[in-house]
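hey
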């Protein structure tokens, strides 16, 4: 007996753009996107068509994605996982092989295929932070990515704060709240947030060197719980949920998310030592 399975739907750019509009993506607005292409499913034209659908829905708006590079840091969770079990000599070999950050060429593989497609698009610009840069396309791209302070990952001198001021929308395209970068700005806005040291490879005067600095201790380990509470009715925020491709996606205002996060984190982390690292950049 022969069994057959139903063919997998292949999603087309025009339909994806329509779903994004139905979800509430604002034409000519500003949109920060976190995406899982595996959750979206197969797209005719691949990831570039998905990026095109986002731009179609935005019209003359601005598309923003994280372009983080934990690969060039020896204080990041990425590095610690990579060298776990290695001896000192092997660890030093890994450190020696790390390329310095270059906003024009440094890949951001851990951010996913969509973020890389946007970063590599013609006309895209990128902020200059050596670990937590953002890439953007559209009329406000340069304004949003300019002057990203190298010792401020995701705080008041980062693109996140500018997105907050513009009341940008955030799209979680098939991803969970555990990857919601907006919540990190809330970490900066709690009273006396814990701080820690970070270190990464940069270029200075044409030479490769290690640079160490201090910033807020980023910790995303409780973001899934934070997001679940944020999405509950009665928070004063609107979290829209709908299908985009094969994914379940969510759309909300960044200022709602940040304001809720700062209050939630103040209440839930009081007296709890920072766990830092997790999947956060660093």
């Amino acid at each position: 007996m022969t069994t057959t399975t139903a063919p997998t739907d292949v999603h087309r750019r025009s339909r994806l753009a329509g779903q994004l509009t139905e979800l509430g993506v604002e034409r000519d607005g500003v949109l920060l996107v976190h995406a899982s292409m595996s959750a979206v499913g197969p797209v005719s034209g691949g990831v570039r068509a998905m990026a095109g659908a986002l731009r179609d829905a935005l019209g003359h708006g601005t598309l923003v994605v994280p372009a983080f590079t934990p690969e060039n840091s020896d204080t990041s969770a990425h590095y610690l996982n990579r060298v776990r079990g290695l001896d000192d000599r092997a660890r030093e070999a890994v450190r020696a092989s790390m390329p310095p950050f270059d906003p024009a060429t440094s890949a951001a593989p851990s951010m996913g295929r969509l973020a890389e497609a946007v970063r590599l698009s013609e006309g895209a610009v990128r902020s200059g932070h050596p670990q937590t840069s953002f890439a953007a396309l559209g009329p406000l791209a340069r304004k949003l990515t300019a002057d990203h302070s190298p010792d401020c990952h995701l705080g008041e001198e980062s693109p996140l704060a500018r997105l907050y001021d513009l009341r940008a929308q955030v799209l979680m395209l098939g991803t969970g709240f555990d990857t919601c970068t907006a919540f990190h700005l809330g970490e900066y806005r709690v009273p006396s947030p814990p701080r820690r040291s970070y270190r990464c490879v940069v270029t200075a005067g044409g030479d490769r060197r290690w640079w160490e600095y201090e910033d807020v201790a980023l910790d995303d380990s409780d973001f899934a719980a934070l997001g679940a509470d944020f999405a509950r009715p009665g928070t004063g925020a609107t979290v829209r949920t709908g299908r985009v491709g094969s994914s379940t996606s969510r759309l909300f205002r960044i200022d709602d998310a940040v304001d809720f996060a700062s209050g939630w984190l103040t209440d839930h982390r009081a007296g709890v030592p920072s766990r830092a690292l997790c999947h956060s950049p660093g």
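The radius of gyration is 19 Å. Residues 1-7, 274-278 have pLDDT under 50 and may be disordered.
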